[in-house]
Every structure is written in structure tokens, then in C-alpha cells.
Design a protein that fits this description.
Layout lengths: L2 H14 L3 H12 L4 H4 L14 H10 L49 E6 L4 E11 L4 E6 L8 E5 L3 E3 L4 H29 L11 H11 L2 H26 L15 H4 L9 H11 L5 H18 L14 H35 L14 H6 L1 H32 L32 E7 L4 E3 L5 H16 L7 H4 L19 H27 L4 H4 L3 H11 L3 H21 L3 E4 L2 E4 L1 H44 L6 H37 L6 H60 L8 H31 L8 H32 L7 H18 L7 H17 L2 H8 L6 H11 L11 H6 L6 H48 L1
Parallel strand pairs: 6-9
Antiparallel strand pairs: 1-2, 1-5, 2-3, 3-4, 6-7, 8-9
Helix pairs in contact: 5-7, 6-7, 10-11, 10-13, 11-14, 13-16, 14-16, 18-20, 19-20, 20-21, 20-22, 21-22, 22-23, 23-24, 24-25, 24-26, 25-26, 28-30
Length: 973
């Protein structure tokens, strides 16, 4: 009774699938055990909606322990034996007695809203029911919400909930189907596991039981059937006992006693020839040897490992930079591709070689040397099946990895899809209309450039790089070798045998690539628009603090306007703190604005501090000027008097000090108001400025105290200077007498040879007289201040008048001699003849005016006449100097003059006149005149000759011009 069941399960593993009547029959038997009254629900009005939101239905299902993963209807191609994942469609276990209406009997369900579990999204979605297909019992629905709104899907009735249904009944329906499927899957896995337990006769009947059976039946065939049933029974008991004790297995022993249907499910009324059926099965199936089974199990294990390989970095707790994303993905891809191209092939080949080599010659001989034989062997079919499994695993890896890759990068921000090409960021900079439901993928840092704001990674790189990573991975998957050449080394294979993978133009790849590119191209529009909004802060970012302060200083604004500027900077800084975010999410991008925000806020703070410092310096200068004025007043009134005049000057100044201090106090009040501006901004003054401020406030009181002390000090100083005045008066009288005596003796000197010494002494005495006169005036002013009688200065004035003529005589004589020495000693070219004549005339006139004054003094009169004679003696030299300065004299003339006069040496206008005087030039005046006349005549002759040549040249030019005009006229004719 159990033999057909085993064969059916083995046939399913070979790829034929499970007979449909298995679960249909089992489902029917189970439904009979449930009372109809528990499942029945009466719906009086189909327009009533029990549930109007997907969340309500999901909450009810969650309370019943139903997860979305339990509703997945995709059937894996290669189900794992020790896995909790189901490999049977849930719709096979649907209990139709829960259904509340018949689709063919009523049309109330058409165009009605319902909730369906969509296979592609793996979530409950709101749909509109369009059509029912009775042949497949599938319902055609249209999605109403989400990114795939408007798309059509085919769903079974079990995964379609109508709004008028009882949600609790619907949850029971799903729960019943899930429990039934779990039991069926567990039973199938248990039977499959039991059928492939190789015991080598361990569970065979004993000798006594064998003899008893043979004795009763007298047939070997009966014993073989009994032996097979006996072994299967004990193997099932042993496996069930092991599964109950070992918790590492997902499979559990089914309770077959409660399911009698499994015992009669595949029972047939007619007799079955098990030997023929077993022989036919062995000829057709590949699983005729336990080594083949082990080989396929190992291959399947390797393929399952490949399916689970991480191909991309599709999960990340934190957003990462594009370069880091590229590096990590390229490293992961290279690691996985290295495993696929080397380790996977090597491990699979090693498993196959180790298991198949145990079989030896026959259908699985890996040492076959002929292609014709290899093509007929089961080994070829086995290798093909292994290749198909490997290709399927590779395709599943790529499809799953690319799906996860795209799902990871396209992070559920539906607002991105609605962006137009002309999008501009019009809202504030903090709230983003593109916040994704999942964490952002990429991190960018917003920075400020000289032209415009920019990101740390160029946004245009994202679409092409993300597409390149995915497409390049698919291309690399096309170069994974098959196991055939490495397994069967006795045959020669082509070198380009690769496993088939997913193509770049595969529909799934095209859709995913298009989805990825469209999403990121649209996501770049708000990204760039957001960065453009920060262009308003470019001027602030590049503001130079020094230049800003220099402009503020040059504007020379009053403190009230500086206060407004400081308050404006503070408001702008606070505005930055409230309007510029630390970070913002725009679709898949997490933009780090914190560095730029810190720079902008710091720049505003620096501008504020710079303005406060500028105001502080301005006030410091004003306060320092105020203190300087106070110090000037203090120094002025505290000066130590050196005379009575000084005391009266200080007293006069002190009378103006109260008014000055009052004006300065008014100025200080204005400065204090400006200091209050700094206090209003909580600005701490430096210690020196703070001390300076209070010093300025305390100075008026200090000045008043100093004035009182100075007045007391002056009283004592006046008496001191009065005593000094008497002593100075006596000393002044003595000085006058001494000078009078000295001048009387000095005026008796008249030696003309000591004119220079006499002139120096005369000037000194004159200065002494003038100093005594000035001292006398000073003494008289002090006498007046002391209220004493003035001192007579008449004698002193008379002495000065008498000495004036004597002073004029010697100073005029000394000055003339110095002039005469300069006229003779300097080169002729540098001598000013007009100045010489003027100097001679002035000296002559001055000396002549002195003659009447010295009539009564013959000795001094002789001195005056002597110097007059000296002046007149030098006068003829002026004419000779004028002749020698003739501009027409040339080198030849100077040579002739030197020869005539008898001067040995070269003469020129650069020679001083004393050279000529030494050689007696005054005796050769006629010779000088002749040479000068000759030089002038030669000059005139030369000028006449040059004028004649110029006239002849002009006549020739005129002749040539006239001749050229005549030729031109002849040519015209």
C-alpha cells in the first residue's frame, strides 16, 4: 500500500512534480471534518464595508499569527530538505466552504474595491476587482495606490479579501490553509527523507521471522514484498524517533494515525508488478545509486550557498559617500566573482569527482574516453542537470542581488517620481518634501565654491556609476566556466564553455536599470536646486574680515549706526541657526550641511566680534584722547614755575580749567553712552580699557584737587622769586659796567690786518649788548609783577648806539674781503659778474657812509679810507673778468693768450681768476682785448659763411623743384 507513494515522491524529485490529485484529495477529506456552521457567514448587504483600510486587515491577521512571509505563493525550483520555507502553493489548501458567494452566480463583486496580497510587492494593496477566470480560479485585479498604480495582477481567491467579508472568517480561512500546507509539506519531507535512508540490510527481518514467512508463503516474492514493507516501517519509526530527539531538523514526525487518507491515497485496486515498475524506474531515473544522490545533494548545497552569496553591498546602517560605496561594492563583487569563477567550480568538481568515482565503470564513468559513448551515458544527463542547476543558481543570485541592489538604492521616496524637469526648491531649507521611508543611501557634503555651491561628489556621477556597477557585474557573470571540462578530463572540450547567466537586455534587467536611472535622474533635480539656494550665502562665505572692518572704518559711522550693524549681524546669525539645517534628506541622499553652516555662523560671529572690537577701539581712542587732554591740563597746572611770569601764566590758565573740565565732562557722557552699547551686547571690555574708562571718569575730581595744591605751592614760590629778583638786579648792573669798560678799550683798536678777528669780536659784543637789553626788559616786567619800581636802561641803549658805527665798520670790511676772496678763488665760469659789481657798489656805499661818523677819530677814519681804496683797487678786475668770459673764445685763443701772457699751463674758462692775477693779467689788458676781438671776428666770418652755404642750398633745392615741375608738365602733354 505504501510502495506507490514512495515512487511518486521520488519521481517528484526528478522534476516531474507532485500529482495534483494528492492535495485535492487530502483537502477534500479534511474539509469533511470541519463543521459547516463554523465556516458559514451570511451577508445581507454587499455594499457594507467591514474594513476600509489595509492596516486594519493586517492587524487582524497579525493577531492570528499570520505573517506576510506565510502568504508568499512563489514555488522554489529546488526546495531545501531541512528548511522551514514552503515549496507548495498556498492556494492548493484553500477551503472553499469559507467562500461567501459564487463568482458565476452574482456580479456584485465586479469593479468593487478589495485588498489583495500582490506577489511582486509582497504586501497587501488596495485593488479594484476586474475579472474572474474560472479555468484557473484566478482573479484579475488593478492596483489603486503606490508606484505601480494601474498595473494588473492575477491573484488566487485565497489572497483576495472583499470589503463586505467578515475579516475574522477570512483570517480563519488563511490560517486553516497555512496549517494544512505546513502538515502536508512536513509529511512529504518526512517520506522523502525516509525513502532515501540507505540501511544496508540493518532494518531487515530477523532469521526466525524470515523462516516463518517463507514457511507460510512458500514464495520468495511474498517475502521480498514483506521485507520491503517491514524495512520501510522500521525506517520510518527510527527516523521519527530521531527527529523527536534531534532539534536541529525542521522536519517533524507526522501523526499518520490521524490522517488515514495518506494510507489509502495511492492505493490501487488492481495488482501492481513492483519489480517491473522498479526496473522501469531504475532505467529512467538518475537516482539509481546513493553516490549520485549524494552528488546531487552536494551540488544542490553548493548552489544554495551561491544563491545566498552577497554580490552587492545592499544594506547599510549609515549613509556612505559614493566613492566608499564604489570601493566596497567593487571589493565585494571581486570577492564573489572570484568565488564563483574558482572556488565554486573547484568545490563542485571535487564533490562530483569524489562521489562519482566510487561508482566506477557504467553509466556514471567519469573516465570515459569517447564522445559517442559519453553522449549516451546517464553521466551526460547528470552533467546537464548539474549545469542547469548551476545556471539556475547563478541566475537566481543575479536576479536576487540586482533586485536587492535596486531596492536598496531606490529607497521608497515616492515624491521623487512626481518631479518635473523645471523643478525649483521654493520651500525652506530645513523641511524636505523628499524624505524617504527608509534611511538615505548616500552622504554628500555641501560646500561653497568661488563660483557657486557644490557637493563633495558631483551629482552627475551617481546614475552612470550605479548603472556601471550593476551592468559590469552582469558582464563578469558571463565568464564562469562549466564543471564538464574539469570533471571529465579524458575528453577535450572547448575553452569558452561558460554558464549561462542573466543578459543585459533581459526584461528584468532592463526594467531595473530603467527604474534605477529614472529614479536618480529625477532625484538629482531637487539636489541641484537645493544647492543653488545656498548661492545667497556666497558673499558672506568669502567676506574678508579685515576688508570688512577697513570699509567700516573708512565709512566713519557714528556709534549708533555701528550698534545697528552689530544687531543686524546678530539677527542674521540667529537666522542662520534657525533656517540652515545640520543635515537634510533628499530622496536617496543625506546632505551634510553642518560644515557649511558652521562656517557661515562662525563668519557672522566673527563679523559681530570684529564690529564690537572696532567700536571698542574707537571708544578706547576717544577715552585715551580724553585722558590725554586731562593729562595735558594736569601737567600744565603742575609745571614747576621757573619765574614769576611762569606763575602768572599758570594762574591765568587755571582760571580757564573749570570751563574746560565741564566741556570734557559733557564729552565723557557721550562716550559713556557708547560704552552702554557694548554693555547691551554683553561685551567684556579688556582690563586696560576698563581701567582707562574709570580713570577718565575720575579725572575731573583729580584736577580740582591738584588746582588747590598748586595754589598753595605758588604762594611759597612767589617769595622765592622775589628774593631772586634782587640778586638778578645786582648782577645785571654789574654786567652792564663790565661791558661798558670792555667796549671802551676795544674801540681804541684799529689794526686793518686783523679785520676778521675784529669782526668776530664786534659781533659777539653786539650780541652781548642785545642780550643785556632783553634781560633788562625781562627784569622790568618782573618788577611790574612784583609791584616794584622799573630799572633804567638808558645807559645801555646809549652804549649800543655808540657801538653800532664801530660794528658796521668792521663787519662791512670783513664781509667784503670774504666776497673778494670768493670772486678770485672760484672758476671764471661760476662767477656772477653782476653780483660782483653789486657787491663792490654796496661795500663802497657802506664805507663812504661811515666817513662822516669818524671825522673826530682820525685813526678809524684812516681805516675806512683804507678799505675804500681796497674796493676801488679791485674794480678794474671786473672788466678783465668780463673779457675772459667771452663765449667765442676757443682752445686756440686760450693757448695764444697763455703764450702772450707767459702762463705755463692750459687756460680755460674753468680756471680761477687768481691764476691770471698771479701772472699779471692786468698788464696785458690790450692783448686780451685783441684776442677777444679776433675771436669775435672769426665767429662773425663763420656765421657769414654758413649763411651763404644755406642760401646756395636753398637755391639748388628751388632749381630742382622747378625742373621737376617742368618735367611733369611735359609728361602730361
Amino acid at each position: 500500500m505504501r510502495r506507490p507513494c514512495r515512487l511518486a515522491l521520488v519521481h517528484w524529485d526528478a522534476g516531474a512534480g507532485i500529482p495534483s490529485n494528492t492535495h485535492t484529495c487530502g483537502r477534500t477529506m479534511r474539509m469533511l471534518e470541519v463543521k459547516r456552521a463554523v465556516k458559514y457567514q451570511f451577508i445581507p448587504d454587499y455594499s457594507i464595508q467591514c474594513i476600509n483600510k489595509v492596516a486594519h486587515l493586517e492587524n487582524i491577521l497579525t493577531e492570528e499569527g499570520i505573517k506576510d512571509t506565510d502568504l508568499h505563493i512563489r514555488v522554489p525550483d529546488k526546495p531545501a530538505l531541512n528548511s522551514s520555507a514552503s515549496f507548495l502553493p498556498l492556494e492548493l489548501f484553500d477551503d472553499l466552504e469559507y467562500d461567501c458567494f459564487c463568482a458565476e452566480a452574482t456580479e456584485l463583486w465586479q469593479k468593487s474595491e478589495a485588498f489583495a496580497f500582490i506577489p511582486t510587492s509582497l504586501h497587501w494593496e488596495r485593488v479594484s476587482v476586474e475579472k474572474h477566470h474560472p479555468a484557473t480560479n484566478r482573479w484579475e485585479v488593478t492596483m489603486l495606490n503606490g508606484t505601480n498604480a494601474g498595473s494588473n495582477h492575477m491573484v488566487p481567491r485565497l489572497l483576495l479579501y472583499f470589503a463586505f467579508e467578515n475579516p475574522c472568517k477570512y483570517a480563519d480561512r488563511l490560517k486553516t490553509a497555512i496549517v494544512e500546507r505546513r502538515e502536508a509539506v512536513n509529511a512529504i519531507r518526512f517520506r522523502f527523507l525516509c525513502s532515501y535512508v540507505f540501511n544496508d540490510g540493518h532494518y531487515a527481518p530477523g532469521k526466525m521471522l524470515e523462516q516463518s514467512i517463507r514457511r507460510r508463503s512458500n514464495s520468495d516474492e511474498v517475502y521480498e514484498v514483506f521485507k520491503r514493507i517491514f524495512e520501510q516501517y522500521h525506517i520510518a519509526l527510527a527516523v521519527g524517533t530521531h527527529l523527536n530527539e534531534d532539534t536541529t531538523f525542521v522536519i517533524k514526525k507526522p501523526q499518520l494515525n490521524r490522517r488515514s487518507t495518506y494510507r489509502t491515497l495511492f492505493a490501487k485496486k488492481e495488482a501492481v508488478n513492483f519489480d517491473e515498475l522498479l526496473d522501469l524506474f531504475r532505467r529512467k531515473t538518475l537516482l539509481v545509486d546513493k553516490n549520485v544522490f549524494h552528488a546531487l545533494a552536494l551540488v544542490n548545497l553548493e548552489c544554495e550557498m551561491v544563491r545566498k552569496l552577497p554580490l552587492f553591498i545592499a544594506t547599510s546602517e549609515q549613509a556612505m559617500a559614493l566613492d566608499d560605496f564604489e570601493k566596497q561594492n567593487l571589493a565585494q563583487i571581486a570577492k564573489t566573482m572570484k568565488y564563483l569563477q574558482n572556488t565554486w567550480i573547484e568545490r563542485t568538481t571535487m564533490h562530483l569527482h569524489r562521489t562519482l568515482s566510487r561508482i566506477g565503470p557504467g553509466n556514471f564513468n567519469i573516465g570515459v574516453t569517447q564522445w559517442t559513448i559519453y553522449s549516451k551515458l546517464k553521466l551526460k544527463r547528470l552533467v546537464n542537470q548539474i549545469q542547469y542547476r548551476m545556471q539556475d543558481a547563478l541566475r537566481s543570485l543575479l536576479l536576487g542581488a540586482t533586485r536587492e541592489y535596486v531596492d536598496f538604492l531606490v529607497n521608497d521616496c515616492n515624491a521623487v517620481w512626481d518631479i518635473e524637469e523645471d523643478y525649483s526648491w521654493d520651500g525652506n531649507l530645513i523641511d524636505s518634501p523628499f524624505v524617504p521611508s527608509r534611511p538615505a543611501v548616500f552622504s554628500l557634503t555641501l560646500e561653497m565654491g568661488p563660483e557657486a555651491p557644490y557637493y563633495s561628489t558631483e551629482p552627475g556621477r551617481f546614475p552612470e556609476l550605479l548603472e556601471y556597477i550593476m551592468d559590469d557585474t552582469v558582464k563578469q557573470s558571463h565568464f564562469i566556466h562549466t564543471v564538464e571540462p574539469s570533471l571529465i578530463q579524458s575528453l577535450i572540450f572547448s575553452g569558452d564553455l561558460y554558464l549561462s547567466s542573466v543578459g543585459l537586455i533581459d526584461q528584468a534587467m532592463v526594467e531595473r536599470r530603467s527604474k534605477l536611472l529614472d529614479y536618480y535622474k529625477k532625484a538629482l533635480l531637487p539636489l541641484r536646486s537645493y544647492a543653488a539656494r545656498y548661492g545667497a550665502y556666497k558673499e558672506l562665505f568669502f567676506t574678508d574680515i579685515k576688508e570688512f572692518i577697513e570699509r567700516a572704518k573708512s565709512a566713519d559711522k557714528p556709534s549708533s549706526e555701528i550698534k545697528e550693524d552689530i544687531a543686524l549681524q546678530i539677527r542674521l546669525r540667529e537666522n542662520l541657526e534657525h533656517t540652515v539645517p545640520l543635515e537634510i534628506k533628499i530622496g536617496p541622499f543625506l546632505i551634510d550641511v553642518q560644515p557649511l553652516r558652521k562656517v557661515l555662523i562662525r563668519k557672522r560671529q566673527e563679523l559681530t566680534v570684529a564690529l564690537l572690537k572696532m567700536l571698542t577701539e574707537k571708544l578706547q581712542l576717544k577715552t585715551a584722547a580724553m585722558i590725554a587732554d586731562y593729562n595735558a591740563i594736569s601737567e600744565r597746572i603742575c609745571e614747576k614755575p621757573v619765574s614769576i611770569e611762569h606763575i602768572y601764566d599758570i594762574r591765568q590758565y587755571m582760571e580757564t580749567v573749570p570751563d574746560m573740565v565741564a566741556r570734557m565732562e559733557d564729552r565723557m557722557k557721550g562716550i559713556l553712552y557708547e560704552y552702554e552699547i557694548l554693555d547691551g551686547f554683553l561685551w567684556n571690555l579688556p582690563d586696560t580699557d576698563f581701567q582707562q574708562k574709570w580713570n577718565a571718569l575720575s579725572f575731573p575730581r583729580t584736577v580740582v584737587k591738584q588746582m588747590d595744591k598748586v595754589r598753595e605751592f605758588h604762594e611759597s614760590e612767589v617769595e622765592k622769586f622775589r628774593k631772586q629778583q634782587f640778586a638778578d638786579e645786582a648782577s645785571f648792573t654789574a654786567s652792564i659796567e663790565d661791558v661798558n669798560v670792555y667796549i671802551s678799550k676795544f674801540t681804541m683798536l684799529y689794526d686793518v690786518s686783523k679785520v676778521a678777528e675784529m669782526a668776530v669780536e664786534v659781533r659777539r659784543l653786539w650780541k652781548t649788548l642785545q642780550a643785556l637789553i632783553d634781560q633788562g626788559h625781562t627784569m622790568n616786567r618782573r618788577q611790574e609783577l612784583f609791584e616794584m619800581a622799573p630799572i633804567s636802561l638808558n645807559n645801555l641803549f646809549e652804549l649800543r648806539n655808540n657801538f653800532a658805527t664801530y660794528r658796521d665798520l668792521w663787519t662791512v670790511a670783513a664781509d667784503y674781503l670774504k666776497l673778494e676772496e670768493s670772486w678770485i678763488g672760484n672758476p671764471l665760469a661760476s662767477v656772477d659778474l653782476e653780483g660782483v659789481r653789486r657787491g663792490l657798489q654796496q661795500a663802497h656805499d657802506s664805507l663812504k657812509d661811515l666817513l662822516p661818523l669818524f671825522v673826530d677819530q682820525p685813526q678809524l677814519l684812516a681805516v675806512v679810507e683804507h678799505f675804500l681804496q681796497v674796493v676801488e683797487t679791485f674794480r678794474p678786475n671786473v672788466d678783465i673778468m668780463e673779457l675772459l668770459r667771452c663765449p667765442h673764445l676757443e682752445a686756440i685763443h686760450w693757448s695764444q693768450l697763455a703764450k702772450e701772457v707767459g702762463i705755463k699751463g692750459k687756460l680755460s674758462i674753468d680756471v680761477s681768476f687768481d691764476v691770471f692775477l698771479e701772472h699779471g693779467i692786468r698788464g696785458h689788458v690790450g692783448t686780451v682785448r685783441q684776442i677777444v676781438s679776433k675771436a669775435e671776428e672769426q665767429r662773425l666770418e663763420h656765421e657769414r659763411r654758413r649763411e651763404e652755404e644755406e642760401r646756395i642750398r636753398k637755391e639748388q633745392e628751388e632749381y630742382k623743384r622747378v625742373r621737376a615741375e617742368h618735367r611733369l608738365k611735359r609728361t602730361d602733354i
